Amino acid sequence: MIAAPEIPTDFTLLQESETHFSSDTDFEDIEGKNQKQGKGKTCKKGKKGPAEKGKSGNGGGKPGGPNRMNGHHQQNGVENMMLFEVVKMGKSAMQSVVDDWIESYKHDRDIALLDLINFFIQCSGCKGVVTAEMFRHMQNSEIIRKMTEEFDEDSGDYPLTMAGPQWKKFKSSFCEFIGVLVRQCQYSIIYDEYMMDTVISLLTGLSDSQVRAFRHTSTLAAMKLMTALVNVALNLSINMDNTQRQYEAERNKIIGKRANDRLELLLQKRKELQENQDEIENMMNAIFKGVFVHRYRDAIAEIRAICIEEIGIWMKMYSDAFLNDSYLKYVGWTMHDKQGEVRLKCLTALQGLYYNKELNSKLELFTSRFKDRIVSMTLDKEYDVAVQAIKLLTLVLQSSEEVLTAEDCENVYHLVYSAHRPVAVAAGEFLYKKLFSRRDPEDDGILKRRGRQSPNANLVKTLVFFFLESELHEHAAYLVDSMWDCATDLLKDWECMNSLLLEEPLNGEEPLTDRQESALIEIMLCTIRQAAECHPPVGRGTGKRVLTAKEKKTQLDDRTKITELFAVALPQLLAKYSVDAEKVTNLLQLPQYFDLEIYTTGRLEKHLDALLRQIRDIVEKHTDIDVLEACSKTYHALCNEEFTIFNRVDIARSQLIDELADKFNRLLEDFLQEGEEPDEDDAYQVLSTLKRITAFHNAHDLSRWDLFGCNYKLLKTGIENGDMPEQIVIHALQCTHYVILWQLAKITESSSTKEDLLRLKKQMRVFCQICQHYLTNVNTAVKEQAFTILCDVLMIFSHQIMTGGRDMLEPLVYTPDSSLQSELLSFILDHVFIDQDDDNNSADGQQDDEASKIEALHKRRNLLAAFCKLIVYTVVEMNTAADIFKQYMKYYNDYGDIIKETMSKTRQIDKIQCAKTLILSLQQLFNEMIQENGYNFDRSSPTFSGIKELARRFALTFGLDQLKTREAIAMLHKDGIEFAFKEPNPQGESHPPLNLAFLDILSEFSSKLLRQDKRTVYVYLEKFMTFQMSLRREDVWLPLMSYRNSLLAGGDDDTMSVISGISSRGSTVRNKKTKPATGKRKVPEAEESSSSDSMWMNREQTMHTPVMMQTPQLTSTIMREPKRLRPEENYMGVYPMQPEHHQAPLDYKQQEEAARQQQERAAMNYVKLRTNLQHAIRRGTSLMEDDEEPIVEDVMMSSEGRIEDLNEGMDFDTMDIDLPPSKNRRERTELKPDFFDPASIMDESVG
């Protein structure tokens, strides 16, 4: 069969034919004696004699008759239809298209082959055409080079990558054409030593092209051609085996019955089949060595994926020839590919092999070598790859359980808890196949047994053991969801689970431990929830999907089954585990998934009464919040007015609340008696009763019990005496909060009187005052509770309450005063922005462990988010956010996302006010630094550098669209300048203002100013400067110099000449040669900039600050495209030393001093220009003549005039070229094959 592939350094296509087309060797007449005889029969290939050479050719003959054009029939009434157009349309049956081409080939094979060559060229997106003259006299490399030069350089798209309905089916039609072509030619034409040689030679040459379109298309064609040839080889192998078997049968007959002529015929047939098979092997070896071994490591991932996908097909289709280590190694190596789509193809190819258990023996060495890599791919960063890796391991597990070690399996087991559902489901199937799919032979006799004796009993125990060993006890819902699709029968065997909990163990059976029972109850709850809701748990789904009719029926059947079973069993379970808080909490959630109608239709009222009694007993026994809330939710689920059981449940609930309310009032009266010290027992009784009432008030409207008065009395006493236990205060605050919310809900949902509104308003205001008092409580937990509730109340009763047509609620709107806002902000600063090590929230005063630290951080994040929500919805003043924003860098890891989102939302509300808040936060930090270090601080100190870095981060949040943030940035600079000059130096004007260093921070925002706005800000800056300030050059004046320079820097063109008063006439010569601005570049027009400036100026004049000078007429190069300088141009020609002056920034009387300043500015511009030019020279761009063609433009750029955007030091890998080279590089003599660096593609660390 096919020899083990060796990659030759100099590959020649075939031994008997040249790769070029010469008239005396490649053109031959295939009609007549060389034609194969009959379908399905093969004969020896005919050899052309000397007299036949050179007779075929084109010879000026006409192609195929009147109904042919370009080598095939006209179809569907379409004239002059190229083969490419027919395949692209996809409307004709592919077999008829191929049959037409075969007829054309029989008539004139040169014309037909020319049509086929042009078909591959056009499928690559090339507009060039191979002529008959080129076909005769040019070599493949010359033809490909010619087509490369004629390739369309305007776009990198080609048919295989184009979008749109026209091209969606092109790839499949293209592949189908190649497959049908080989199938229809497999009995004659592919053996004529002409057609296949030409096609393989062309595709091999194109696959080595630097043009991606050629390489991609030809590789796909060659791989599909190889797949078709593998199918032909497989058929030949089958025919040879049949012929050999017939020959052996005939030869074994006795001499009298043996037919010698039949033996000779079978021998001849076998010889012909062997010759055909040898020729097919030569073709396959040519494609494999000429295309595959180079392209499976191509720089383009799509090409590598094609190669791996097809070799998988070959190994599966013809395993005898291809399924060996010589070919498997390519798949193993490519599993380390950097691109996920290539790794995915490797796994899908291997799945097709491992699925067939008959091939396992041939995969043993490969499995041992690459098993570790497959296991590691279960953690691949691409979820699709991870899913397929797990599925592949499942197939490996089914083929041989000994291959995977326990460690390998454990690496897959924990993935059942993955948040990505496809990964978890695949891991669940692996887990089920490994631990649950095997059944002991002795279980066959008890298949019909139910409950504890059913075969699922041991499997349920195994599931519990696995869940406990995984040590992820909070994720039972994820485990159940992972196995839901593959182990539905096991997970829905609730009767078995119930029996394991209620029935006594059988003889010799070990009972479940307390921990195992808790795990089983949790798993049972999760299975019931999954069956009743029919959607994955929270965090593992994109949302609820619409159920099909079959799924709805299954859901109803499951709910009926659950209700019928647990309506009877739940009271028994609650009675057995009534003292265990964890078990009871989970069991009490079951009624939420009941079909309550069954209580009536199934005559199960007595079991309902038993359930209500058990719930009442649990409420009386427990004070745990989770248990009480579970009881409250159970009553809420059962109190459904749609069902007849409502009255029964409502009476039981009312009786329970009556008792609790009476008990609370009685205990509270004794507890608050004057002159007596409350003892611990009284406090415990009050607290436990208050916990029960609060838990029920969360889900039930208890307004008729008037709980506000007693809670208010309790809270007020706590404020006056200051000795109220913290837990009582916390639950009293929560209960009062529920009272107010329930009253608001009643007023909103029904028509209410004015008295109701006024009563609610009064209660809400009084409650806010109480919460404000408790913000200063000594206990941290009380303060956190008061803060959280206060933020919620302020949010609910803000102006947002009137949205949706609820104007009648306007009297309830409550806006916090400045003192309350200040106290809320102080709480945030004192309790949120603290170091993790300094925070100690444990009740016993011990250091927190890692879990409690995470919990404490989560609590602090919630507190900060609650306050930021008030800022975003304008409940509190936006300037209060300054104290939040200034913490952005220091606490970035903990709260960076919250603060950044707050910035974004506030900027959407008011850009200018947000900018003023940002600059205010920087001013606060600056003042804090001054207070610590004094005015003579070091500007290189970490504190000052941190403020500058924060300013830089703030500047980045404004984005790239300067027009949208124009006014905000300008206002930010205005406030910053005023702050810098706000405090004059007591020593006189010869010394800098005290806050002058703030300009160094403000310069971080200069890059966000538009060029014309830089000039306006500069003019405004000069209003605060004196003449002596402009002359100072000492270090203490460096912030002013730096800030002025940041405003003068206008870019890499002569915009600086406007800012500094220098004329730009010296650059007009070059500007005339500059290309006009394209539509992609936004160039502000003069009228627009003037109007924007005047609008900003008008608003500035209304402020109680020095009025900025009117913007003079702009004469800069704003209207012109930034020019590109010739390297030989004189710098002074661009920026003349004695320019015309266009503005008077300050009223200076000393003209000589002004001239000196102009010279200094010109010198500064010269230095900056020289720096820009040196940077451009290092990049090798921006200095080209306009009429020169950039060498790399057609390779790397998508538009003209953007060469300067190339990154410095970019590595131009030739295989990243998507378009053909420019015409000025046509002197290349040959395209180099196989120049890829495998190290750049293969990475062992991927995954």
TrEMBL record:
Q: Could you confirm whether the keyword Metal-binding appears in this record?
A: no
Q: State any GO BP term from the record.
A: chromosome segregation
Task: List the biased-composition ranges (Polar residues).
Answer: 1060-1069
Q: Per the database entry, which stretches of residues form a coiled coil?
A: 233-286
User: Biased-composition ranges for Basic residues?
Assistant: 36-48, 1070-1081
**Record keywords: Cell division included?**
yes
Q: Where is this region: Disordered?
A: 1-74, 1060-1094, 1208-1247
Q: Which UniProt keywords apply?
A: Cell cycle, Cell division, Chromosome, Chromosome partition, Coiled coil, Nucleus
InterPro entries per record: ARM-type_fold, Cohesin_Scc3/SA, HEAT_SCC3-SA, SCD, STAG
- Ranges of residues in domain SCD: 292-377
Write down the Pfam families for this protein, in alphabetical order: HEAT_SCC3-SA, SCD, STAG
Q: Which PROSITE patterns match?
A: SCD
Task: State the GO CC annotations.
Answer: chromatin; chromosome, centromeric region; cohesin complex; nucleus
Q: Where in the cell is it found?
A: Nucleus; Chromosome; Chromosome, Centromere
User: Could you tell me the superkingdom of the organism this chain comes from?
Assistant: Eukaryota
User: Oligomeric state and partners?
Assistant: Part of the cohesin complex which is composed of a heterodimer between a SMC1 protein (SMC1A or SMC1B) and SMC3, which are attached via their hinge domain, and RAD21 which link them at their heads, and one STAG protein.
**What is known about what this protein does?**
Component of cohesin complex, a complex required for the cohesion of sister chromatids after DNA replication. The cohesin complex apparently forms a large proteinaceous ring within which sister chromatids can be trapped. At anaphase, the complex is cleaved and dissociates from chromatin, allowing sister chromatids to segregate.
Q: Which family does it belong to?
A: Belongs to the SCC3 family.
* PANTHER family recorded: COHESIN SUBUNIT SA-2, STROMAL ANTIGEN
Q: What protein name is recorded for this chain?
A: Cohesin subunit SA
